[in-house]
Amino acid sequence: MSMGSEVFRIRGKWRAAPRVCLGFALLIAFETGCQRGPRDHLDFRLQVGDLLFQDLDGSPFYDAIEKVTQGYQGAHLTHVGMVVQDSSGKLAVLDAALEGVQLTSVEEFLGQSRDEDGNPKVLVGRLTPEYQSLIPAAVQMAIALLGKPYDSVFDIENDSYYCSELIHVVFQKANQGIPLFEVRPMTFVDPDTGKTFPAWTDYFNELAIPIPEGQPGLNPGGMSRSPALRIVHAYGRPEGSNSGNLAK
Length: 248
Known about the structure:
Elements: E1 7-10, E2 13-16, H1 38-43, E3 51-54, H2 60-68, E4 79-85, E5 91-97, E6 100-105, H3 106-110, E7 122-127, H4 135-144, H5 163-174, E8 184-185, H6 198-207, E9 216-217, H7 220-224, E10 229-234
Antiparallel strand pairs: 1-2, 3-4, 3-7, 4-5, 5-6, 7-10, 8-9
Helix pairs in contact: 4-5
């Protein structure tokens, strides 16, 4: 299902929603490419454990998230998945979506959003050498979570997962309980008005739970800026990206 048309149902009402990462609007504003041509993509090879940071469109939730967070070099990044091997040995993307923790083909994942030149709005993050040894255990744990529900309430202590939470949890466990990615207070407040974004107000009202303002969480933009990884490839240009080469 394409990102722009995705909906979910709460208390009998259908609502447009982001494909995955809803709970990552953080209090901090992250500081955070050059256009990649077809040849660049042919030469680049994904590796197991790579993180695919994606700029998805088509929802007021994404607009709210992008307004209070920034990704690598200013990129608007609202989703993240991890490259793994499927049962046949083919590379696939494991991510947490509204359907739950799932496997998606690389082609489908890359095709979910494209820039004005038709290239996927995806940046590839690769762990630095000192953390590469964590990947096999993290991947194994992530695969064991397939089928777990989506974390619609953004609680990092429950047994359901939003996209950046999933990545955080498996790498923290692989790293003997030491977080690899920084957890920060979430915010759902529009910095221009000082009030909660209407989309979030409606969302949490439908769930009949308090807005988890200030509770710990993560987001794809913040993860993309982690010193534990490098951006090694840009399939296209996410919105908000600064000029220059996006890949280090």
